[in-house]
Amino acid sequence: MSKTAGIVIIGNEVLSGKTQDTNSHFLCRELRTLGVEVRRISVILDEIELIGKEVATFSRNFDLVFTTGGVGPTHDDVTMAGIAHGFGVKVIRHPELERRLRERHRENINEARLRMAEVPEGAELVGEGFLYASVVKLRNVYIFPGIPKILQERFEAIKGGFRDTPFFLKVVYVKEGEGVIASILNNLLASFPELLLGSYPVLDNPDYKVKVTLESKDMNYLSRAFQKLLSTLPEGAIHRIDGN
Amino acid sequence: MSKTAGIVIIGNEVLSGKTQDTNSHFLCRELRTLGVEVRRISVILDEIELIGKEVATFSRNFDLVFTTGGVGPTHDDVTMAGIAHGFGVKVIRHPELERRLRERHRENINEARLRMAEVPEGAELVGEGFLYASVVKLRNVYIFPGIPKILQERFEAIKGGFRDTPFFLKVVYVKEGEGVIASILNNLLASFPELLLGSYPVLDNPDYKVKVTLESKDMNYLSRAFQKLLSTLPEGAIHRIDGN
User: Fold this and answer.
1) In order of start, what are the domains of chain B with their CATH numbers?
2) Going by fewer Cβ within 10 Å, which terminus of chain A is more open, N or C?
3) Cβ of A203 and B30 within 8 Å?
4) Cα–Cα distance for residue pair B216/B195, rounded to 1 Å
């Protein structure tokens, strides 16, 4: 069994179409490379009750939970309050975060800026010891800001801790359409029921019509399934092969 | 009250980081322009039970539901079966879709290709009368394929039916950071509690630090809130103003 993960994207700006979320794709790619299986993404509104319920549910259902967005000094930054609500704890001012904020802003510190030190009670800091590389963690929930650059830096700093057995992948670009190869793929799955097999049609590509992906955490199993696919596809149907 | 919508993205390829979903952003932008409020996006695995449960829940909670992905002739295309399961109906072969598929493929028709005619019992076709512009609809659920180009064409063909009172938007690009303007925004919300107010910090832009968005379906209300914001921001704090 892989480690599983769920991602909660918090942000009216995504749902109202103002911002395209790129954080979930970044996290999905990185986590897959680490061998972690992302099983669900939710994009929800900046509402305390909603955030609390969603994050608590994800926390029960998955080994790791990542939230992005809603962390900051303004009225619409309610992620910390939402997560605290979901776990039935208070929002407190984290002493170490407060110390760093006071050091940074000196005489310009104010109530709004100090909101950046607020965390659910019981939360800890993980990652490097300077302000913008720490990730706030409560139980199995990692709380990230929504700005992609900051999220990526912080994720890089802590990702080693998430590593699991890697997935092995073969990608076969096939010149025939899905209507032709569907039965071949069905037969392949009948022989290799544990194989993670994907079939993705591609429009307007002169070289191939379908991208077929084969994955497994068992390299040997993958290799045998891959050989079977190669031997059952029609002569000349393969445009290109990729993989790790 | 606006019409509400939820989007269900069905696809292991998104969760495993192989594909970046762009369909949800397209739908969020289009629906916002039409005056429809998207309240939730879920990205879930290609699993029948999961799809059924999610789509049925969305159907109860929102006026309109859009699904993307998992529609096609191969083993991993289980959206139709999932939605049928969720509503407790059978999967049937739609006579009109079958007719079009047989006309298109002639003597090359096969079982895999005929899977493209399968829909949940009770589903209807909306949109133009040729194969690739019809959208399969069951109750308030619109079932789209995952390929962005096809999804966009089909959405364009039917979107007129979703139109609601539009949102009016003002965007103010502010040179001060959130730590400075947070209290101004809080005061604005205290005076205009119905205002949809967003505050989005921007990194590494030499011209401004925060993008502030004000929205309402009531143009007059928006206009008064906007004037109040302009009159309370510090002198010279505005870089630029946008909106409709």
Assistant:
1) 4-162 (3.40.980.10), 168-243 (3.30.70.2860)
2) N
3) no
4) 6
Residues of chain A contacting B167 with CB distance shorter than 8 Å = 16
Chain A residues touching B43 at Cβ < 8 A: 24, 40-42
Side chain identity, residue B243: G
Are residues A216 and A194 in contact, defined by beta-carbon separation less than 8 angstroms? yes
Of B41, B72, B203, the CB nearest to A43: B41
pLDDT value for A128: 67
| Average pLDDT of the residues in B111-135 | 85
**Is B28 close to A14, i.e. CB distance below 8 A?**
yes
What is the pLDDT at residue B7?
A: 98
Residues 6+ apart with CB under 8 A from A163: A34, A35
Tell me the average confidence (pLDDT) per consecutive run of 10 residues in chain A, 244 residues long: 94 96 98 97 98 98 98 93 98 94 93 93 84 84 95 93 96 95 96 96 93 97 97 95 88
Nearest to B17 among A12, A32, A186 (CB): A32
What mean pLDDT comes out for the span B154-170?
A: 94
Express each pLDDT in B137-150 by its tens digit. 999 999 999 999 99
pLDDT digits (tens, 9 = 90+) for A137-187: 999 999 999 999 999 999 999 999 999 999 999 999 999 999 999 999 999
Q: Which value, to the nearest 10 degrees, does the dihedral of the CA atoms of residues B58, A15, B24, A3 take?
A: -80
Among partner residues B21, B42, B110, which is closest to A40 by beta-carbon distance?
Answer: B42
Q: Which of A3, A4, A28, A189 to mutate to test the interface with B (most CBs of B within 10 A)?
A: A28
Give the orientation angle of helix A48-61 with respect to helix A79-87, to 10 degrees. 60
Supply the pLDDT for residue A1. Answer: 74
If you measure CA to CA, which chain B residue comes closest to A47? B39
Q: Read off the tokens for A197.
A: 């097999």
**Rounded (to 5) percent helix, strand, coil in chain B:** 45, 25, 30
What pLDDT was estimated at residue B244? 77
Task: Round to whole Å and give the CA distance between A93 and B34.
Answer: 42
Chain-centroid distance of CA B39 in Å reads: 9
Are A15 and B44 inside 8 Å of each other by CB? no
Is A72 in contact with B201 (Cβ distance < 8 A)? Answer: yes
- Choose the closest CB to A203 out of B13, B15, B147: B147
Note if the pTM is more than 0.90.
Answer: yes
**B2 pLDDT exceeds 90?**
no
What is the mean pLDDT of the segment spanning B200-210?
Answer: 93
CA dihedral B74, A218, A64, A49 (to 10 degrees): 20
Distance, in Å, from the CA atom of B220 to the CA atom of B112, rounded to the nearest integer, reads 56
CB–CB of A198 and B39 under 8 A? no
